[in-house]
Design a protein that fits this description.
Layout: H1 26-36, E1 44-47, H2 54-61, E2 66-71, H3 74-87, E3 93-97, H4 100-109, E4 114-119, H5 128-137, E5 141-152, E6 160-161, E7 164-172, E8 175-182, E9 196-200
Parallel strand pairs: 1-2, 1-4, 2-3, 4-5, 7-9
Antiparallel strand pairs: 5-8, 6-7, 7-8
């Protein structure tokens, strides 16, 4: 794995030791950023199931000003810190050990709000939509914030989630990337919005 583009382009990234973490491949990562960026002019990112930190680090490299990385596994956090150091981006990052729900509560207390959120929970967990609604309820999302939800291709999340509208859906073998946009006005009802479907196989 490596940083694909931006200020840290080409920097190699370590994997988390063992088989407990499923890193996003460079192919899928490049596809994600072609859909949501590819570059940014500041803003705050949240990498909630950070793993290697590859997605949040890529966002920083491409122009995000700050990023918060959260994971429950110490091995993952050690890997995130090593990768941030290798990319020379540690000054723009905060790294926390916590589960997702508690992390959201802690971020709410600190008054944080994000422009970009990466949600890549273990595939056995099917609560990405619940996490998104929790973030909205806790005022952790700025208007028009983008949510990148990575999940197994055999599972479908709704096109419309209260407060969110899906704008892109791309399939890469066993992995599906769903891009949602947060619109506070949609929390009281379903909104409109087009969707682009892309499919490509590994």
């Amino acid at each position: 794995m490596r940083v694909i583009s931006g200020s840290a382009k080409g920097r190699p990234l370590k994997s988390v030791p063992g088989n407990g973490t499923r890193p996003t491949t460079d192919k899928v990562k490049e596809a994600i950023f072609s859909m949501i960026g590819p570059y940014f002019e500041g803003g705050a990112a949240l990498d909630l199931y950070a793993g290697t930190g590859g997605l949040g680090i890529e966002a920083l490299s491409r122009g995000m000003e700050t990023a918060v990385f959260v994971d429950m596994e110490q091995k993952a956090l050690d890997t995130v810190r090593a990768n941030l150091q290798a990319a020379k981006l540690e000054a723009q990052a905060e790294v926390y050990r916590n589960d997702a729900s508690r992390a959201l509560g802690a971020l709410e207390k600190r008054g944080r709000a994000f422009d970009l959120v990466f949600l890549d929970p273990p595939y056995r967990l099917k609560h990405g939509d619940e996490l998104m609604m929790t973030m909205a309820a806790k005022h952790l999302l700025k208007q028009d914030a983008v949510i990148v939800l990575e999940h197994e291709s055999g599972y479908d999340y709704p096109e419309h989630i209260p407060g969110f509208s899906r704008t892109r859906l791309s399939v890469y073998g066993e992995t599906t990337i769903a891009i949602y946009q947060y619109e506070a006005a949609l929390q009281e009802g379903s909104g409109s919005g087009g969707e682009v479907n892309d499919e490509s196989a590994n």
